[in-house]
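Note to self: keep these together.
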Amino acid sequence: MIHVAAQPEPASFDVEVRQKGLAWLQKKKISLDQPLPPKTTLEPYWRYCLDEMHSSYSGCCAYLSVFIERVTGGGSVDHFVAKSQRAELAYEWSNYRLACSRMNSRKRDYDDVLDPFEVESGWFHLEPITGHIYPNPDLSEEQKVAVLATIVRLGLNDDGNKEMRARHYQEYREGYYTAAFLQKRSPFVWAEANRQGLL
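Structure:
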């Protein structure tokens, strides 16, 4: 995971998402300052902004830090603060993170995942040959615990994710694509390779 800079909401967001969502909440008499009633399913107006989110965030999953091909349908809107906890944030751009479907499903309503908007570059380190990631040894103990909790919760070191990161680095090393393409396709791998002087 690397730092993700928050992007301004699209011009159409207020009309297409926020206003529709708040009107729906009002119609259903759902309090904005309370957790959602059990088994409440919100109207997913946030889907209307997914194309804009993909464009605004260069198509990269905020958690896995890899490019999501829009045509695969693999991108989704993650509500960083869970919808079940704060209904008033369900239709707010500032609460949205572009996420691949797998990371979104793993994060769910848990609150022990670091916010990509608040993560600083260099908190997560990479061993590029194996694809293994780990907390920066220079972090405070509290930060290390938070980074490790995020890695565990999201399964960032599962076999598939490690293989993917190692493959992206190896394909770059073998000349299949340029450093600029690696930066677009796998920005965390690029950032770590750059930090380690491997580009």
